[in-house]
Each structure stands twice: as C-alpha cells, then as structure tokens.
Amino acid sequence: MARTRERGFPADPVTLPVPVADNHTHLESIAGVLADGVAAPTVAEHVARAAAAGVDRIVQVGCDLPSARWTDALLRSGEHPAIVGAVAIHPNEAVLHADAHDVGPDGQSYERAEHHLVPLDDAIAQIGEIAAANPRVRAIGETGLDYFRTGERGAVVQRAAFRAHLALAKELGLPVQIHDRDAHDDVVAVLLADGAPERTVFHCFSGDVELARVAAEHGWYLSFAGPVTYKANEHLREALREVPLELVLVETDAPYLTPHPFRGQPNAPYAVAHTVRAMAQIVERPLEQVCARVSATSQDVYGRW
Ligand SMILES: [Zn+2]
User: Fold this and answer.
1) How far is the CA of 287 from the centre of ligand 1 (A)?
2) Ligand 1 centroid from CA 154, angstroms
C-alpha cells in the first residue's frame, strides 16, 4: 500500500522562478501515518519537497476540532517556519456538532465521531481560543456553506456557524477562508449582510465569471486550486481572467483536487507549482510576474511568515 501511495504522488515540477505560497492545504491528511495505516511522507519531507519546487510557504488548515488542535501543536513546535495556520469548524463539521446532519444532494449521511459531541457553540469558542492564543494562526477557515452535503436543517446550522466565524475573524483582526460549495448566492448574501472581514478569501474558488466580478468589486480574494487546470472548467479560467491579478491566490487543498495531468492522485503542497504554471498560461502573463504577484498577495493576506 505504501508503495502505491508513494508512486501515486504527482511528478516533481520544474522549480518556479519566484517562490509562492500554498495558501490552503491539509497536511494532517497527507503526513505521517494516515487513518488507513499507510505511512506517508513526514511534514518536514512535504515542506522540503515543496521548497524544492518553489513553494516556500504554506497555510495549514485545521478545520475540525482534532485537526485544529493538531495545527496549533504543529505551529507551536517551532520546527516549521514555512508554515502558518488557519483554524475553523468546517460547515460539514458544524452540522455534525449540532446533530443536524440531514442528507444533502450528495445522497450520503454522515456519522458523528467522538469530537462531535462537543456542542457547536463550544467548538467554535475553542477555535477562537486557539486562534487568539497562537500568533502563528493567521486565518479563520475554512468556514462557509456546503449545500452539496447537507439538507435544509443543516443549511440553517451552517449559516449560523458561518456568521459566528465571520464575527470571530473580525474580532481577532484575521482574514477568513471561505468554503463555498453550491451556495454562491447565500455566501455572498451572508457576507454582505454581516460585513465581510477586511481580508476575505474564497478558498478553492468554484464560481463563474459573475461571482468573480462580485468578489472583485468587494476586494475579496480568489484562491485557485487544481480544478482551474481541468478541461471541463472553462468557467474557472474565465473567472481567473476576469479579476485583477492582485486578488488571486493559489492553493492545493491537498489531499484533494490534484492538478491536471495528475488528477485522481494524492495532492501535496509542491504540486501548487503545476497549478500556478497553468494559471500563468491562462492569464497570458510571464510566469515570474504571476509568481511574484501571488507571493506578495499571500503576505498581504496572511502577514509575513
Ligand atoms: Zn480545505
């Protein structure tokens, strides 16, 4: 199994001319011994491999209680200056904490785990404590709405959790990373009703040119992941061309969404180099220029690493 997994990671990219940041990844899902017992590369190995590819900074996202604590501990270890963090209760986690996990359009029902016994309010309060006490936590995320995996009961819970996270981000003066799946209109409505944090990032932007325009109008950032490289997703490439490059970020969302032509294989931060290369072609700008801009924007949003 371990051999399969190792063979499964994408090929190492040509090193980027200017280093960029992977502004959204889940290292706990790809490092160490994974849930299925498979031995994966260590965090240090992922960081080194990324740096060699020209991906020298990472935002590690812990978006359930166990991974938020894991992220907090990783940042506190002081071993990885290349990593800062984001923490939140993911919308699909929020419904489990609230015991409101009705079946969504994906047709699946989800099981509660031990940590879901913590009431939602308490869970979000714990996220706030972690974020407030750790200066290496630089964002609240991912939070938002996921109408693909929940029904109407869950959607009500998700909207309340989203609002609580927006309030938290503003209280702590942190940016927010938004998860928006099949919920574009409601995400925008909540942001406008409550007031978006000064730095608002649509993580793994999945909208079309219309949503891109709305985001750009409000100065919200669009973070592009592997799907912008997939053949079918012309709407994402149109969205990318539509917005000023100053509002564009890049991410892996590892372990998911591996860029073309490695789709279906496990993802890791170094693979962001493949995505940013494709993005430069899409916007028809020199790769150096795109990397330099994305890199600077990453620091505008998350501060210096
Ligand atoms: Zn994510």
Assistant:
1) 25
2) 19
Q: What is the CA(220)–ligand 1 centre distance, in A?
A: 18
Q: For the beta carbon of residue 279, count every other beta carbon within 10 angstroms.
A: 24
Dmax over CA atoms of the chain, in Å, equals 50
The whole-angstrom separation of Cα 266 and Cα 121 is: 34
Q: Where are the domains of the chain?
A: 20-302
- On whether the pTM is more than 0.70, the answer is yes
Distance of CA 231 from the midpoint of ligand 1 (Å): 22
Nearest to 232 by CA among 201, 251, 195, 260: 260
- 86 CA to centre of ligand 1 in angstroms: 10
Q: Convert the pLDDT of each residue in 211-270 to its tens digit.
A: 999 999 999 999 999 999 999 999 999 999 999 999 999 999 999 899 999 988 889 999
Q: How far is the CA of 142 from the centre of ligand 1 (A)?
A: 6
Superfamily of domain 20-302, CATH level 4: Metal-dependent hydrolases (3.20.20.140)
Q: Give all strands of the β-sheet with 176-181 in edge-to-edge order.
A: 20-25, 55-62, 83-87, 137-146, 176-181, 200-202, 221-224, 248-250
Which has the closest alpha carbon to 115: 123, 107, 106?
Answer: 123
Nearest to residue 147, comparing CAs of 193, 119, 181, 174? Answer: 181
Protein residues with C-beta less than 5 angstroms from the ion ligand 1: 253
Q: How far is the CA of 269 from the centre of ligand 1 (A)?
A: 12
Could you give the angle at which helices 287-302 and 272-283 cross, rounded to 10 degrees?
120
Q: What Å distances lie between residue 188 and 182, 237, 292, CA to CA?
A: 12, 21, 29
